[in-house]
Structures are given as C-alpha cells and as structure tokens.
Write a structure and sequence with these properties.
mainly alpha; 73% helix; globular
C-alpha cells in the first residue's frame, strides 16, 4: 500500500468521526426538546470533537503545503482565508435568512411550549434584531459579544469560534515553529483555564476562542505527531504525551481521551504488524468509519449540524399541540421526534451539500484562480 493510499484511508476515518459527531449534536438537541434526560447529556462534547478534527486538518494541510506555499508570504495567508471563508460562509449566509426572517418566531417557540414538555430554558430573552446584530453575524464576530453569541435558531456560535481559530491559525503555527510546542501549548491552556473560570459565565455558549483553544491545540498536536512519526520519532512521542496531558485536563476528559486514543490508533497502527493483537477490532472500526453510510454522513455533516434546529423547533412545537404527544414519556417523545426529524434533516442536508456547499467551495477555487491572485504574483 502506498503512502498516499494509506493517508486517504485514515482520512476517511476522520470523515466517519465527523459524521457521527454531527448526528450526536442533532440527537442531543432532539432529547432536549423532548424533555428527556437521555444518555447524551449535551451536544457540546460533539462540538469539541469537531474542534479537534478542525485543528488537526488545518495543521496537517499546513504541513502538506508549506514547501510550495510559504507561510511568511501574504499570498499564502490570503489563499488560506479565502478557502476557509468559502467553505463556511455560503451555507451559513443562506441559513441566516430563515433564522433572521423568523427571528422572533424561533425565539418564542420554546417559550410557548406546554409546561414540562421541553428541557429548554424558557427565561431566555433574545436581543433585539438591529443593524449591529446583523453586522456581527455577517462578519462572524458575534461570538465575541455575549448577547449575540447564541441569538439565532441555528447553532452558529461554533462557527464564530471556528472563524476566530482560522484568523489566528497562521500566527499560531508560526509560533509553534519558532518556539517550543510545550511552552506555547502550556501557556495557551493556562490562559484558557483562567478565562473560562472568570468569564465563561457571561456567555450563553463558549463562543470565544480562548474558551476552547485547548481542543484546537489537541488537534494541532495530533497532526504534528503524525508529521514527525517517520522523521523524529522521539518528537512524535513527546507530542502525543503532551496532547494526552492536555486532554486529561479537558471537560469530560475520559471521552476526549477516548477520541484522542482512537484517532492516534487509526493514524499509527500498522495492520501488517499486529503486535497488539487488535487487528480484528481495528478492521471493524475502520469499516464502520469509512463505509458508504459514514461517507454520506460526513458529506452532509456541516449541513446537518447547521440546519437541523430550523426543522426541529417548529416540528417539536407542532407535535406539542397534540395532547397525545404531550402525555407521552420523554423517551417516547424523543423517538417520535427523531423518527421524523432525522430523514427530513438528512434529505435537506444532502440538497444543501450538493447545491450550496459544493458550489461554494468551487467559487472559492474560482476566486483563487482569477485576476485577484495576479496582485500577489507581481
């Protein structure tokens, strides 16, 4: 098996993990609207996994392109920002339209739900919809302002967080290159701990980068450990130890450590050298994470994540108008909601992926191949 084929295979595992994470977010929100205290207590943990994957992929592609795209060059930064903008913005701007048009309707749904029929906080008062509100969402800066951080029906707080990460990523990688991984990572994690302790309570969601920088760092260190595994084995081992330490001090550390262990195993395990006698388990996990269903879930993961609330909220409200539904126990309300929501969401997500996400990515490539690039070539 060639290196490129092997690389493609374990990248497909990442796709499976991303697809499962999006499904878990939708499932957790569905449980909340059904007022069922089910096994998935919060969607936030799945979002943390998204951040780890994002940190990994950004750092991995940074290494892939560093010989041909020098990160000291403004051109490279421009290319990076354009790619990321057109990956995120087209779908987000589209789904902002119904979120803003029906702004007060969506914010009132949970407030008029029958008593006891929702696990939502009914005391939330949405901020007024004004120009600043709109401007912060168009520019992805809303996550920096507590009152706007989670004001829309779509779970876009993590998109602002993601864009903040993209904004500092080139600086961060240059810092890692110039200084010690250990000291940069440790310093940022200490700052993150302090900021979380003193400021997180002011935000409805952890939408400020320093609240979650540790998860992006875990992903970056994973990518760097993979990069050095055949170059500097000791460095690779040290990076793995460092990211395990950071993972151990994260919220829900046991689950984060499991995800890190899974990704590390998928990256480093050699099927031909089954010293650990886990080949059957490895193959089973590989098949689950890289089959056609997992690939479909990965392709639609962004749309599933961003669009599902626009369907879930009116659906839950509509069902709650029926006494037979309200009288059901929480788990049964969840089953009914999920049985209707899941196919609707995935069908919608497939259409959005095909007709919005993919053309958006293509538009970004067109921008990078056009006249604008000539400015940097002179």
């Amino acid at each position: 098996m060639t290196g490129n084929v092997a690389k493609k295979e374990w990248f497909s595992y990442f796709d499976g993990i991303r697809g499962i994470a999006a499904l878990l977010v939708m499932t957790a929100h569905c449980m909340t609207w059904a007022a069922w205290d089910g096994p998935i207590k919060s969607a936030a943990l799945a979002v943390d996994v998204f951040m780890i994957l994002s940190g990994f992929l950004m750092a991995y592609h940074y290494r892939e392109r560093e010989k041909t795209q020098l990160w000291e060059s403004p051109k490279t930064w421009y290319i990076f920002y354009v790619r990321r903008f057109f990956r995120i913005a087209p779908l987000y701007y589209l789904l902002m339209i119904p979120s803003l048009f029906f702004y007060y309707h969506f914010n009132n749904f949970h407030r008029v739900m029958p008593a006891g029929n929702s696990g939502l906080n009914t005391e939330i008062s949405p901020p007024p919809f004004d120009f600043l509100h709109l401007l912060t969402h168009i520019t992805f800066t809303f996550g920096l302002i507590p009152q706007y951080a989670a004001s829309l029906a779509i779970p876009d707080w993590s998109l602002s967080l993601e864009m903040q990460f993209y904004a500092v990523f080139p600086f961060l990688m240059l810092l890692f290159r110039k200084f010690s991984y250990f000291w940069i990572s440790l310093s940022l994690c200490i700052v993150s701990f302090i900021v979380n302790h003193f400021w997180l309570a002011n935000f409805p969601q952890p939408s400020f980068l320093l609240f979650k920088i540790n998860f992006f760092i875990i992903g970056i260190l994973l990518a760097e450990a993979y990069y050095f595994k055949n170059r500097k084995t000791f460095t690779s081992i040290c990076l793995i130890v460092l990211l395990i330490i950071i993972s151990g001090y994260s919220r829900k550390a046991e689950i984060i450590l499991f995800v890190v262990a899974l990704i590390t195993t998928l990256m480093f395990y050699d099927e031909k050298d089954d010293t650990l006698r886990i080949n059957k388990i490895f193959v089973a996990v590989k098949n689950i994470l890289s089959n056609r269903i997992s690939r479909f879930m990965s392709d639609t993961s962004y749309s599933v994540y961003l669009a599902h609330n626009l369907l879930l909220m009116p659906l839950a409200y509509w069902f709650s108008s029926f006494p037979w539904f309200v009288s059901q126990p929480g788990y049964m309300k969840f089953i009914i909601l999920f049985a209707v929501l899941a196919p609707l969401t995935y069908c919608t997500a497939f259409v959005l992926f095909k007709y919005i996400e993919k053309p958006g990515i293509a538009l970004g490539k067109f921008v990078l191949s056009g006249k604008v690039m000539k400015i940097f070539n002179h």
